[in-house]
């Protein structure tokens, strides 16, 4: 009896986690955070006050903005939107894995062809991967949603 109760409680928690989402109004907040982060980064580059710590902070701010936009619900959050969300996450994950595997090779080949002295095979950074995943998710989500 206690085992069934524990399993039911776990299932309720899992369902609550699956349905998690920020209110629709947070989508605009997330997009605004991303835009402000990009503007500050560009102004910092032009004004030449882009320090390493400022870049580090701004990259995280942009990622948080993208995450907020990705986790925000639509005005009408129904079963079709949840299905689209799942498809978009799957496609973004696959695209992210392919990007992470192929991009270092492309960078190496381009630097080899350009006869760059430092043609090393380097991994893709954490910011690049997370930015790519979140951006691809949002693009796939809106492409699929618009198509239907």
UniProtKB/TrEMBL annotation:
Keyword vocabulary terms for this entry: Membrane, Transmembrane, Transmembrane helix
Keyword Transmembrane helix: yes
Record field: transmembrane: 29-47, 53-71, 92-114, 126-144
Protein name (Swiss-Prot/TrEMBL): Uncharacterized protein
Organism: Kordia algicida OT-1
Source taxonomy: Bacteria, Pseudomonadati, Bacteroidota, Flavobacteriia, Flavobacteriales
């Amino acid at each position: 009896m206690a085992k069934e109760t524990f399993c039911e409680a776990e299932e309720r928690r899992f369902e609550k986690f699956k349905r998690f989402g920020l209110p629709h109004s947070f989508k605009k907040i997330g997009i605004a955070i991303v835009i402000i982060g990009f503007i500050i980064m560009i102004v910092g580059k032009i004004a030449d006050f882009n320090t390493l710590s400022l870049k580090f902070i701004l990259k995280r701010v942009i990622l948080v903005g993208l995450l907020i936009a990705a986790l925000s619900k639509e005005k009408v959050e129904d079963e079709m939107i949840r299905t689209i969300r799942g498809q978009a996450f799957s496609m973004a994950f696959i695209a992210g894995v392919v990007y992470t595997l192929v991009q270092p090779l492309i960078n190496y080949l381009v630097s080899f062809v350009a006869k760059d002295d430092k043609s090393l095979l380097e991994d893709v950074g954490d910011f690049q991967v997370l930015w790519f995943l979140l951006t691809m998710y949002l693009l796939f989500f809106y492409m699929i949603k618009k198509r239907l």
